Amino acid sequence: MPEEIQQQIVRETFHLVLKRDDNICNFLEGGSLIGGSDYKLIYRHYATLYFVFCVDSSESELGILDLIQVFVETLDKCFENVCELDLIFHMDKVHYILQEVVMGGMVLETNMNEIVAQIEAQNRLEKSEGGLSAAPARAVSAVKNINLPEIPRNINLGDLNIKVPNLSQFV
Amino acid sequence: MALKMVKGSIDRMFDKNLQDLVRGIRNHKEDEAKYISQCIDEIKQELKQDNIAVKANAVCKLTYLQMLGYDISWAAFNIIEVMSASKFTFKRIGYLAASQCFHEGTDVIMLTTNQIRKDLSSPSQYDTGVALTGLSCFVTSDLARDLANDIMTLMSHTKPYIRKKAVLIMYKVFLKYPESLRPAFPRLKEKLEDPDPGVQSAAVNVICELARRNPKNYLSLAPLFFKLMTCSTNNWVLIKIIKLFGALTPLEPRLGKKLIEPLTNLIHSTSAMSLLYECVNTVIAVLISLSSGMPNHSASIQLCVQKLRILIEDSDQNLKYLGLLAMSKILRTHPKSVQAHKDLILQCLDDKDESIRLRALDLLYGMVSKKNLMEIVKKLMTHVDKAEGTTYRDELLTKIIDICSQSNYQYITNFEWYISILVELTRLEGTRHGHLIAAQMLDVAIRVKAIRKFAVSQMSALLDSGHLVASSTQRNGICEVLYAAAWICGEFSEHLQEPHQTLEAMLRPKVTTLPGHIQAVYVQNVVKLYASILLQKEQAGETEAAQEVTQVMVERLPQFVQSADLEVQERASCILQLVKHVQKLQAKAVPVAEELSALFAGELNPVAPKAQKKVPVPEGLDLDTWINEPPSDSESEDEKSKTIFREEEQKHTQHRQPEVDEAELARRREARKQEQANNPFYIKSSPSPQKRYQDAPGVEHIPVVQIDLSVPLKVPGLPTSDQYVKLEEERRHQQRLEKDKKKKRKREREREKKGKHRRQRSLPTESEEDIAPAQQVDIVTEEMPENALPSDEDDKDPNDPYRALDVDLDRPLADSEKLPVQKHRNAETSKSPQKEDVPLVEKKSKKPKKKEKKHREREKEREKEEQRKPSRHKKQHRKEKAGRSKGKKAKQQPPTCAEAAGPVENGAAEEEPLPPMSSYCLLAENAYIKMTYDIQASLQKESQVTVSIILENQSSSFLKNMELNVLDSLNTKMARPEGSSVHDGVPVPFQLPPGVSNEAQFVFTIQSIVMAQKLKGTLSFIAKDAEGATHEKLDFRLHFSCSAYLVTTPCYSDAFAKLLESGDLSMSSIKVDGISMSFQNLLAKICFHHHFSVVERVDSCASMYSRSIQGHHVCLLVKKGEKSVSVDGKCSDSTLLGNLLEEMQVTLAQC
């Protein structure tokens, strides 16, 4: 899918969900952009974030809502009290977590403990390899961060914690 | 050198990482694009460096930029580089980037095949997992075909983590490579009962996805699913299965009957709303499938409707929405049970949530009856006016039209009401559905003859009111209605009350602002109108008035002649000439009206949209035969075809002319009239039937109820649809009274007893048939050609990707259906698929584990190379397949050595089969054990090779505690587990029961590769049998030939030529006599044993290329003489070349 269409979908989806109140239903029926009437947008809204899934009619709507909840709870566990900035600065990690939940557009795992266990095992493996930025690079990154104006700004933004409501867990 | 490295690592420290990039972008809000283009430049620099960590970091940043909408396809090759890194950290980054930006059109994707295969068979489950995840996003038909077998093997992996991913990705493979479905299906089915819930869930997922598209092929799985449904506790799996049953029941009613009970139990017992909802959904599907056969399931329907009502009444909007969705499914077969909840659904129209309103609208569509149509539409009309967003308003508009026009206007009892509704809808500004309204107006006016008079009066008012002309800017806007209005007024102008006024309206200057196609219709219909006015005036003898009308025409038409629209211009100038001619005739007092109106005589009937397609092919006409034989090559094609065409045309016209003679036409017309008379759907109008109610007493006295709105929908000067609602009630009441009277007369006695009751009850239960329509509704059916074919084949989409997956899964596999297998080593002959993919090394030595995947990769790479070559011996091939299928039946028992080695023949010529080759050669053998080995190298590890040793237990003892030790040389050393000394052996990670063989892999590090090496070694083991255990030893010599360090690397001829020209290479040659083998096979042998690839081949001369793991280029020129072969070699290292040629000489001497 070309990047422009990708962006267009993201933009339009964002505008669609943004104008929806919290007390209306979390399903949006498919437009031509996402593949027609067999498709639905199913989303959940947490603080400043929207998690939007696009599914076809083979998925159970309520099931997907629960799945989003599982995903967000997993993020919460993996990032230890996840906040918006975690997701912004660690998009790669978010992808890796999502890939343990959904693979190639199909639901892979719905059990949160299993997902978290696999993520942690992979993180350990990465650590044992020395990670992407080896020690010296990390030290430099610490030096680079000193006296940079954006640091306080980030801290201000930092308390946008996602409140993960205690919904009945799926499975 | 050292300085350069230090410098590089310092540079690296100042590279941005992903977090730096994100932070930078956030800090450059004003000049984001500039900042990012700067970052991309940096990334390009980073990608040029050799350090894989730097590259990975760069690709990681690119992935982020891709997410922001930047095209990163230019870095596809770098992404592949990072994918092939050995560290998981980097590999994961590479695969993530690939999954985000690779697609069918990415050309480098074909380079990934071997890398992915290598990762799939990696001993680390996360390498495999990451490869599967990535592949699931970018799998192409080629990848699917090449990797199907590897993935299928992974479905039986020991780790559930890999199994579930492999199972799930199979669905993608099926879509891209449908041939794999049947061979893979048995194993997929097996996985439905996998002990791991995740794997089971994945298998259920895949089968449900498949069954959704082609349910009939999966009916045989119903008992298995039934079992799963009753014993599973995983709600995900339950939901999937229940959904699947919903798809299966329509095909097998008996299944439905069985399902009702357990599903009802679930509905009563479950607390999970999602499960409850899906159960209800499937029960509905079951009921639908049973509705024809079984009479009474009202209890189940009641249960469903009741549960759905609870959902709809819930405060949770999601449940409300889904409740409505499910309700609409019941509606299709059991409308009565839903109609009872009309109140609830109408209430939902007031919901603040648009999705819910839309769902409610859908329901209304099915709920209308003759009785409630007007009421429902009235309700909708109030919503139309209240609606804020144009989308929802447009949705309402289409829904109103859908509801009213459904099943040939079945529920409309009063078309005057409907026309007024349409006219009211024209008040909607900014709608994009003007053409819909227009189409309805035309359709009704044409097909309901009785309504024409009324329609014409309404349309002339529309033309007159002019508010529509103002909105002419938007395409498909409301002004489209004028198209219909103009046409209706023109075509049915005899019904016009004040034709002159309408004519004036249509000739206003403002009309020229309308879109061209509407103006064109205006122009055309102005003439129709003009003709009818003329006729009227002439008949009345008002010649002066007639001339006045002509004068108006002559004055006004030029504004259309100036139109920029070609169509309008053309029509207008034609008509202007006509009118001028009429003017001349009028001046001479010649009556022209008759002739003018003859131009528009005759009636237009609607033609069915599919009529053209359904014209049957006349007998004896074969559309596939050539009309003229295609011209032969000898003649000039252009000339020939031209003359053919001309002749043909002349023939046709000549042929036609005599056909269309007057008598024949008359005869046909007569025949058609006759037919229409016999056609039950073609009803002639009765004289002005709507009079019946217009003349009814008291119509004028009925107070007109205005809709209480700030902007009323009422079109000035036109009646509102509301009037009709009142009138209709009145009328129906009248009808009822009459009916009651009749009944009264019949059964006076009975009525005396319970008359009141009866009457009250008769109000709500009045059946549809009781309502007689207000007008005689003669709906003219759409015309179809005679003998139209009833088939609806044309609705199917030939490009449906799921069609290819519609295959019979129960038929036993044919030999030709096996998946392409890329393995032929005897190594695999003795292993079960599970062992093969997760060698038991895992617990122990770490290094060999890593290396292991490598050798396999290389092996496969080589074989693949070979397979790609076009000629493969057919006989051999078939034999191999037979072997494989046998293996499959016996649950993946390993194929025998010879068969497995089949496809290795490298480019063997058709006429001369090459004996199967194996790269494994004997290492040592005694009474207990036989060892064969092969050495594999990889370009990624420049000082490492993997030695794979197949250990075969030839005794009846049980062999265990096997340990391999080698006396290291200075140059070549065996990699040992950390902490062990150079004298310790490396344990073999498995035991061997009698008769079993398995493969172990050991990594060796080499410093120099230019010389062959031999290492002494010992295998020690304990042999245990009934009598006891003995400690045994077997000595061996491990031979590292120089060829083992070469890796088959393809090379293009231009690159090859450049290499030779460069002059950096030393040269050497050999010549071998007494060769009897064909050149083709000779090359195949060199390719196979010495890891070369053919660059170019001309007759009996070929250039070949290979590369050592340390980067030496080796080029060969092989020439075949009568009985001899000469090999000229060039290599960047003369010692290596000399040794290689020596080895080659040995090989060739055997040929």
TrEMBL record, chain A:
Protein's UniProt name: Adaptor related protein complex 3 subunit sigma 2
Gene Ontology BP annotations: anterograde synaptic vesicle transport; Golgi to vacuole transport; intracellular protein transport
Taxonomic path: Eukaryota, Metazoa, Chordata, Craniata, Vertebrata
Keywords, ordered alphabetically: Cytoplasmic vesicle, Golgi apparatus, Membrane, Protein transport, Transport
Name of encoding gene: AP3S2
Gene Ontology cellular component list: AP-3 adaptor complex; axon cytoplasm; cytoplasmic vesicle membrane; Golgi apparatus
Family per record: Belongs to the adaptor complexes small subunit family.
Subunit details: Adaptor protein complex 3 (AP-3) is a heterotetramer composed of two large adaptins (delta-type subunit AP3D1 and beta-type subunit AP3B1 or AP3B2), a medium adaptin (mu-type subunit AP3M1 or AP3M2) and a small adaptin (sigma-type subunit APS1 or AP3S2). AP-3 associates with the BLOC-1 complex. Interacts with AGAP1.
SUPFAM superfamilies: SNARE-like (SSF64356)
InterPro entries: AP_complex_ssu (IPR016635), AP_mu_sigma_su (IPR022775), APS3 (IPR027155), Clathrin_sm-chain_CS (IPR000804), Longin-like_dom_sf (IPR011012)
Organism superkingdom: Eukaryota
Main location, first listed in the record: membrane
Function comment: Part of the AP-3 complex, an adaptor-related complex which is not clathrin-associated. The complex is associated with the Golgi region as well as more peripheral structures. It facilitates the budding of vesicles from the Golgi membrane and may be directly involved in trafficking to lysosomes. In concert with the BLOC-1 complex, AP-3 is required to target cargos into vesicles assembled at cell bodies for delivery into neurites and nerve terminals.
Domain AP complex mu/sigma subunit: 2-125
Mode of membrane association: Peripheral membrane protein
Subcellular location field: Cytoplasmic vesicle membrane; Golgi apparatus
UniProtKB/TrEMBL annotation, chain B:
Stretches with biased composition (Basic residues): 741-761, 844-857, 870-891
Main location class: cytoplasm
Pfam families reported in the protein's UniProt record: Adaptin_N, AP3D1, Mu_AP3
Compartments (UniProt record): Cytoplasm; Golgi apparatus membrane
Any one annotated GO CC term: terminal bouton
Listed Basic and acidic residues bias regions: 639-675, 725-740, 798-843, 858-869
Record has Cell inner membrane as a keyword: no
InterPro entries: AP3_complex_dsu, AP3D_dom_metazoa, ARM-like, ARM-type_fold, Clathrin/coatomer_adapt-like_N, Mu_AP3
UniProt superkingdom: Eukaryota
GO biological-process terms attached to the record: anterograde synaptic vesicle transport; Golgi to vacuole transport; neurotransmitter receptor transport, postsynaptic endosome to lysosome; protein targeting to vacuole; synaptic vesicle budding from endosome; synaptic vesicle membrane organization
Gene3D superfamilies documented for this protein: Leucine-rich Repeat Variant, Longin domain
Domain AP-3 complex subunit delta, chain residue ranges per copy: 660-810
Region (Disordered): 611-695, 724-901
Membrane topology (UniProt): Peripheral membrane protein
Ranges in a coiled coil: none
Cross-referenced SUPFAM superfamilies: ARM repeat
Keywords: Acetylation, Coiled coil, Cytoplasm, Golgi apparatus, Membrane, Phosphoprotein, Protein transport, Repeat, Transport
Family: Belongs to the adaptor complexes large subunit family.
Name of this protein: AP-3 complex subunit delta-1
Lineage: Eukaryota, Metazoa, Chordata, Craniata, Vertebrata
